[in-house]
Write a structure and sequence with these properties.
The complex is a heterodimer of chains A (308) and B (107). Chain A is 22% helix and 25% strand. Chain A is built from six helices and 17 strands. In chain A, strands 1, 2, 3, 4, 5, 6 and 17 form a seven-stranded mixed β-sheet that branches. In chain A, helix 4 (153-163) links the parallel strand 9 (145-149) and strand 10. With 107 residues, chain B is α/β, with parallel strands linked by helices. Chain B has one domain (3-105): Glutaredoxin. Chain B has four helices and five strands; from the N terminus they run βαβαβαββα. Chain B has helices at 7-15, 31-46, 63-67, 94-105; strands at 3-4, 21-26, 52-57, 75-80, 83-89. Chain B is globular. Classes of the chains: A alpha/beta (308), B alpha/beta (107). Chain A binds chain B through residues 34-36, 38, 41-45, 59-60, 63, 79-81, 97, 126-131, 133, 135-137, 139-141, 210-211, 232, and chain B through 27, 29-39, 42, 58-59, 65, 69-73, 75, 87-91, 93-95.
Chain lengths: 308, 107
Amino acid sequence: MKIYDSLVIGGGPAGITAVLYLMRAGYSVAWAEQLSPGGQVLLTESIDNYPGFPDGVNGWELVEKMLAHLAHYSPERYNQAVSAIEVGTEQHTVTLETEQLIARTVIICSGATHRKLGLPNEQKLVGRGISYCALCDGNFFKNQDVAVIGGGNSALEEALYLAKLVRKLYLIHRRDVFRGDKVYQDKVLFLADKIEPVLNTVVTSIHGDDVLESLSLCNVQTQEKRELKIDGLFIFVGFEPQGQFLPAGLARDPLGFISTDAEMRTNLSGIYAAGDIRSKLCRQVTTAVGDGATAGHAASIYLEQFHA
Amino acid sequence: MASPIIDADFENTVLKSSIPVLVDFWAPWCGPCRAVGPIVDELATEFADKVLVVKMNVDENPATPTKYGIRAIPTLIIFKGGEVIEQITGAVTKSTIKDMLTQKALA
């Protein structure tokens, strides 16, 4: 059975960069991504903080450019989800949907996904009023009433986008102040005729049979309860790691993100992590690319022992 | 490749089709649609003659998405004999769609 020098898991910017560095170093690479490449960048309308694009760049355009760069190389691509990693000493076995691959190093770049509220009805009403992507689904709610849940940058950014389309937007946050950057908070205040902040408030239940109809809200300070009729609900309450397949024994932080050293090495020999799945402060395309390069390079140095 | 379809052709092409039809409702500005689109194209080839695979741009064709209550994209719907037999929203894996086709559409 073929032994790959490296198996890169994930097709976002971290994975793409790790593949690029390993291929350029001359190693054999398998690359697993369950969807088409791109990851969460595909959800971003305009990326304004990636150097080299002074006028901003659309998420999918940036992905296309990154993939075009990879077209000069030919990693073996597997359009499949990973279900398990069996960690060995010098080689590791990774289980995909229809096959198992063996690799000397594994670079985990499987990213993060939006956290759910975890309420009954939430899953059922996705696509029937509930959404996690304002850019994708905002147009379906033109001149209707929607709620946005969350108080960080994502929530504020998406609320500002939606405010241009909808009739009324309730911005629901469980604390007394928003967490997002001041530049976004100022804009939210500026749109006071459209955006109504609902602070110190949590959603306790979601109602609707075929389509979303209303929310039950509870003020966490006064315990006052109320019903809110809405057509759409956009949920932006943070991210969680996508790593159902991660092996036991891999060091992770309390939120489940993978702990690494500065060279992207995990506590397990030959296993690296890069991008949003890594425990770190700043989750951006810029840092994902940096992580991917560092991991690819660190793995290349580790692999030299097998090619002496 | 999944061929594009418009509101005006929907009834004849999809509802009156003699074989099951998978419709991918998408839009150019939708990121998750781009994560699924190439997979749907591959399935069009793999299921050729057994399942008709088409895609509808919801921006240019508002009537059909409204009729089927679509409020998020990508949404994939499988039609059989003019009836909706399966509907799924969001970026889903190739194997998920494949299972839907073999277990529901071709069952």
